[in-house]
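Chapter summary example.
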Amino acid sequence: MNQNINLPEFFKNQLNQQYDEQIIEKIIKGYCQKRKTTLRINTLKASIDTILTQFEQLGIAYERVLWSNEAVILKEVQEKQIQTLEMYEKGEIYLQSLSSMLPPIILNPKPSTDILDMTAAPGGKTTQIAALTQNKAHITACERNVIRAKRLKYNIEKQGASSVYVMLADSTKMDDCFAFDTILLDAPCSGSGTLSSQDSHISEKFTIELLEKCQKWQLSLLQKAMNLLKPGQEMVYSTCSILACENEEIVERVLHQTKSEIVPIEFSGMETLPTLPVKLKRYFVHLSK
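The structure predicted for these 289 residues follows.
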């Protein structure tokens, strides 16, 4: 294992138990790479062609991806530079990682449906769902933290996501009388998939106590989600962790408790994405480049 990054011993053991040496090296390499600036064009406020034309006029080089028309990778431009642009101030673009754009796309939200985003702040995925449905769905965005809920409301307003209702509440305590056609559970996690070698405090922040706390919270959230989901409907469970104990093991536990099943994930361009091996054969995991 690459020794240039200070990872906690418990995490190294987890990786060694779950992956072979070649995959671990790719993961570590990802931690050491400089991350590109990526964003989503907000089609509630601007057209894709208009924003791309503006980038070209400003001399900002960009790349597109096959799996999303709205996703853009910027070349040699930092987030701080983008934040000075009028299109950013007006909410026409939203700085967002590519991997965080995947859950709403997989969710495939439909107009005229009731959608729950269980842990919504800061609102990137919530506003993406609103854009994908062109504000024609009924979206409930839950956030239990007051400060984070304020940030969520700010982003919703800035992005023009008028179809979103913010509920300041712990979604695990929602009354089971609620019922939703679609649920996104982007669960709080250890963040093991987003670690950076530039962070000298990884061992202090990424602890076994954090991991155990996240697992309990994830299980509670997913159990509640299954109670809130209408029969015969679909939900997406996602994390930014690469550990099985936060992903397929949580899903497997809930599958054994409920009358539910995993369905194949299919969307245009997904074959271009790097993935990690997992136990659940129809379970999709994204590995950032």
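To summarize the output: Residues 283-289 have pLDDT under 50 and may be disordered.
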